[in-house]
Backbone:
């Protein structure tokens, strides 16, 4: 059973300045250049908490939070609340709106079959986030989850609330519009709590943060510092209905740093794919992927030539890789790319992020990685349908790492949740 609760958010006060200068992308989306730019925006930019540039970042973050609270830069709400969060944005010149809500979600181990992951996770990011949690004792960023609301119980509530004046309203540097409404009335809160009770939740983004929160909660319980309604039992979460038309997933392309497409490997690809040489331009590659989106399709670029690959035979794939082709799970493009192209054809073993493989969000960036010499090959894919992600996760399967890029991310800096000992929800 899903348990959600309102919480007393800690938020920036007016003393901190314009909210557009304070918010950031999630910590794992911030590269060194973004980090520098965020630091230049404001002495109170949220990057200084979630990803400090200084040494001993965990201690720095803890001291900054305490200083900002003591000086009134950060203020804790007097009333517990749930927050409706709307994002309006464009993708490929088409307008989208996504509405969800931010709430305290009780933490569940995956085997409890309440919250389901959809991607593989790594040890290093989890160690980093649990170190941050132990230091600051705050949920600094929400985990992003999805649920189903076919009867539109929560969706209809959101529709009513967004007709009122928002608590927070701004446009970020990517031209994404963010609006937040605060719900404090008990009737609306109870409606949301009841509506989520019997739902299943799938993590869209923030697997490492969620699993770190579980580990932190379990450690606190062993110390006897976490009773039933202690805040450490909960995770600040941004939860969105799967029915939202603005639930958009973008492609995540793969750039291989040390592996080449030799003539022998290209010949072997011909055994499994219809291989067609195409113009090595961003427009041509995007056009090829888009026009063949109903098929299992990839593009590959080696710095000089580009090829389009369309899978010939599903049964052949099943025999070689022992796939059950009666389900959609093993036939996702990202899985075929990993298991057939990388492992079987190119004979690549386990790859380490940053050392062997880079994940990039745009075709332009993927080609630039190769052209600059940072990578030798770029493999381009179509995005995964969010409804397929939902279905696969509930069946207990996980996609290859970095298979999805839900866009836009919930921005960081709108609020945080206190997890310190004694905090009750």
Residues:
């Amino acid at each position: 059973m899903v348990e959600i609760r309102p919480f007393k958010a800690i938020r920036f006060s007016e003393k901190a300045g314009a909210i557009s200068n304070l918010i950031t992308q999630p910590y794992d989306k911030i590269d060194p250049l973004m980090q520098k730019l965020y630091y230049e925006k404001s002495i109170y930019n949220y990057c200084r908490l979630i990803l400090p540039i200084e040494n001993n970042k965990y201690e720095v973050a803890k001291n900054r939070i305490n200083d900002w609270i003591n000086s009134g830069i950060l203020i804790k709400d007097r009333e517990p609340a749930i927050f409706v969060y709307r994002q309006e944005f464009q993708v490929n010149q088409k307008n989208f709106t996504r509405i969800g809500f931010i709430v305290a979600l009780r933490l569940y181990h995956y085997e409890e079959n309440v919250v389901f992951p959809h991607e593989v996770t790594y040890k290093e990011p989890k160690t980093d986030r649990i170190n941050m949690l132990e230091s600051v004792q705050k949920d600094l960023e929400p985990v992003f989850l999805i649920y189903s609301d076919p009867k539109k119980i929560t969706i209809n509530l959101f529709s009513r609330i967004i007709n009122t004046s928002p608590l927070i309203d701004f446009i970020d540097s990517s031209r994404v519009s963010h609006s937040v409404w605060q719900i404090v009335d008990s009737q609306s809160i109870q409606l949301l709590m009841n509506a989520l009770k019997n739902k299943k939740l799938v993590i869209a983004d923030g697997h490492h943060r969620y699993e770190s929160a579980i580990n932190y909660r379990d450690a606190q319980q062993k110390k006897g510092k976490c009773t039933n309604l202690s805040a450490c039992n909960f995770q600040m979460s941004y939860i969105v209905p799967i029915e939202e038309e603005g639930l958009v997933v973008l492609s995540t392309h793969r750039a291989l740093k040390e592996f080449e497409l030799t003539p022998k490997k290209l010949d072997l690809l011909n055994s499994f794919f219809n291989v067609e040489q195409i113009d090595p331009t961003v427009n041509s590659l995007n056009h090829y992927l888009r026009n063949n989106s109903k098929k299992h399709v990839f593009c590959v670029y080696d710095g000089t030539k580009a090829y389009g690959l369309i899978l010939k035979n599903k049964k052949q794939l099943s025999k070689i890789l022992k796939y059950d082709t009666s389900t959609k799970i093993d036939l996702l493009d990202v899985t075929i790319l990993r298991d057939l192209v990388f492992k079987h054809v190119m004979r690549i073993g386990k790859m380490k992020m940053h050392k062997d493989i880079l994940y990039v969000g745009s075709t332009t960036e993927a080609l630039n990685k190769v052209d600059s010499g940072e990578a030798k090959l770029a493999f381009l894919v179509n995005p995964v349908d969010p409804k397929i992600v939902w279905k696969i996760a509930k069946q207990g399967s996980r996609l290859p790492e970095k298979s999805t890029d839900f866009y836009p991310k919930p921005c960081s800096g709108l609020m945080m949740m206190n997890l310190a000992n004694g905090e009750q929800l």
